[in-house]
Amino acid sequence: MTVRFTGKKPSRRAFLKGTLASTAGVVAGAGAANAAGPDPLITEKQEWAMGTGEGVDATPYGLPIKYEDDVIRRNVEWLTADTISSINFSPIHALDGTITPQGCAFERHHSGAIELRKEDYRLMINGLVDTPLVFTYEDLERFPRVNKTFFLECAANTGMEWAGAQLNGAQFTHGMIHNMEYSGVTLRTLLEEAGLNAAGDLKDKWVYVEGADASSNGRSIPMEKALDDCMIAFKANGEALRKEHGYPARLVVPGWEGNMWVKWIRRIEVSDSAVESREETSKYTDTLEDGTSRKWTWVMDAKSVVTSPSPQSPIKHGKGPLVITGLAWSGRGAITRVDVSKDGGKTWETARLANPGQPMALTRFYLDTEWNGEEMFLQSRAMDETGYVQPTKAMLREVRGENSVYHNNCIQTWWVKADGEAENVEVS
Amino acid sequence: MTVRFTGKKPSRRAFLKGTLASTAGVVAGAGAANAAGPDPLITEKQEWAMGTGEGVDATPYGLPIKYEDDVIRRNVEWLTADTISSINFSPIHALDGTITPQGCAFERHHSGAIELRKEDYRLMINGLVDTPLVFTYEDLERFPRVNKTFFLECAANTGMEWAGAQLNGAQFTHGMIHNMEYSGVTLRTLLEEAGLNAAGDLKDKWVYVEGADASSNGRSIPMEKALDDCMIAFKANGEALRKEHGYPARLVVPGWEGNMWVKWIRRIEVSDSAVESREETSKYTDTLEDGTSRKWTWVMDAKSVVTSPSPQSPIKHGKGPLVITGLAWSGRGAITRVDVSKDGGKTWETARLANPGQPMALTRFYLDTEWNGEEMFLQSRAMDETGYVQPTKAMLREVRGENSVYHNNCIQTWWVKADGEAENVEVS
């Protein structure tokens, strides 16, 4: 075998020579960049079309164009103790497709977002395992990886709406959610590396997971789920997790409430019972009318919302063709159908799914319709592969009462007025 | 139907009262944010784990953590006339999964990246159509939308390697590529809106597409492709296109060379012949040994590259478990198989595809292997659903000679040395 390589890079001149020699009129595509300079025939009005020509447009890491500076995460002032929130909602009213860019993806911190270097990162597996282990970040990268797209929804998403229509905008009512393509190692792989013989019968076993932040945000997860589809993710949408999403590694618990997706994950303990930690008892439980609480309500039930038109995305054109669009998801599997109502749930039309539903991932739906210019009470209703149908708020209140904070997956209503503006309302 | 809504937002106090009343010990998840303050038991060394607690970590639009500041687009100084390039390569050596974040996705400008407001945007359809039309941006949003993930590869990707191993890193040899989830309207929808009866037999018809930048970057596309799967996209990975990718709308030409994906698209003319514009004659053609040129070489043939280990992503651990990973793609359909060689193509092992290949989209592959600590000549070889097999550089040179700049889809070789460092080499 002959190996050839050039230790030093060729000069640009040499490169151009090599290509120019080939045939008259052919210039290297790359070399010709910026050849178009200012043209005296271009009028002042067309100057915006010229770009800079100086190449300053090329950016190492790019941000959205200035005209989109309203497509950002937002908090709700009265929701948190600080004026600057530790909850920031995804601008779902302004997005399309299914992927949420990391830059505007929902963030929630129990003790702030910490800065943890890969070099300082450690992940311990202990408890009922054959060999307790501590992994470095580099260790994690040596195990077989998987790639999957999943939604994360906070258990509190839409929680403020239990008592009635409150927050005026899909970003605020339904924006505690994001959907990303994760790359990482399955939790099963790491647990099997430590060995589970010591745990005996796995049926009733648990893992307790905690993060490296001050809250630790410890959560108990049944072994069955841990071995099924959980993963330790280090990349989201191709690149490293952001600080606010748990850099350098977080737990992914597909279809289950977001607080279980422990960020900066540092320890996984195999145990024979749930820890019943602060984060899983004082929070994320639902108090019923009789004062008892629903417990271990991990799975996020099927849900949907119309993202446009909506209060932050009013109709700006008159009657005629209108695209109604939104998102649907289910923690129990794939979305199979979404219906849309324009009259507050009296009649329904089946929407078009942009692509076949994927398990535990956001599904985009569209209803291509004609608007008659009159007011609408827009609703969407999701169904998943288990046959579950998203309930109305009345149905949900009937079984849960009005004391709950979490797990509100009821049908949302937007009152779209004749002028195209929309408002969050409740119909019954 | 009863409609209820609150015109004013409830006070935080009222909200907390509503939830605290429910049962002792239950606090609103949102309201409890930042409750964990500094703890005297936390040692100085653990201070990094505290976050700020002030909420300043919450950001409207987030950027990567500072520790990842090397995962950025990069140019190649000698490749362009200006020191700041109008070509910026994706850092594929540092990414995983398949989605390319917009912030570090390959950019290439023929006349700089222009800033075009949605309000100023117009798209004209003219030529052999029943009714010439001009669409505003808002008009485009009223047509039925589609969502699809596609790769864009510049025809010049890997072009510098025809003459031998040149650029030391997958970012530079193969980084003129990105892969995003697009939302937009099919070109067919808009052409049918204008009406194609005037064009008669569509078999030999063309569309000529041009952008609003000074280069206009006009390209001719056969009607068959235009009606098949082309789209006018306004969103990528959920959010608006970035300035550098053609905000507010660009053409998507799945599987075909990136320069046809006209950015800031302003005009589509239906015609009975190709225009043979500057951008499709002086560039993007391949000159053969006999001086003639291959023309209309639109489709990007099946190709792959190992992204790690690679020159910018050396092996930092010793022998033992090693994940070899990379990307594969084909403009003719889905990737069906990727083989990896450690000995410069003498023997091959079939890699694991992270997910089934999707048509004209990046596919992530992994080879979970054991490294013996000795040097490797790493190669990957992609196959697509048409049965096409990615060729060696020798095979490609045999049919194309060495005058080409574009359409180099040959097998890449990384020489991984015993110390884990890697270098771009050529083997024969």
Automatic annotation (TrEMBL), chains A, B:
It holds the Pfam family Mo-co_dimer. One of its GO terms (molecular function) is heme binding. Its cofactor is Mo-molybdopterin. It comes from the Bacteria. InterPro entries: Ig_E-set (IPR014756), MoCF_OxRdtse_dimer (IPR005066), Mopterin_OxRdtase_euk (IPR008335), OxRdtase_Mopterin-bd_dom (IPR000572), OxRdtase_Mopterin-bd_sf (IPR036374), Sulfite_DH_SoxC (IPR030835), TAT_signal (IPR006311), TAT_signal_bac_arc (IPR019546). The keyword Oxidoreductase applies. Residues 116-275 form the Oxidoreductase molybdopterin-binding domain. Its EC number is 1.8.2.1. The keyword Transferase does not apply. Residues 1-35 form the signal peptide. Residues 294-413 form the Moybdenum cofactor oxidoreductase dimerisation domain. It is an enzyme of class 1 (oxidoreductase). One of its GO terms (biological process) is sulfur compound metabolic process. Keywords: Metal-binding, Molybdenum, Oxidoreductase, Signal. NCBIfam families: sulfite_DH_soxC, TAT_signal_seq. PANTHER family: SULFITE OXIDASE, MITOCHONDRIAL (PTHR19372:SF7), SULFITE REDUCTASE (PTHR19372). This is Sulfite dehydrogenase. It comes from Thalassovita mangrovi.
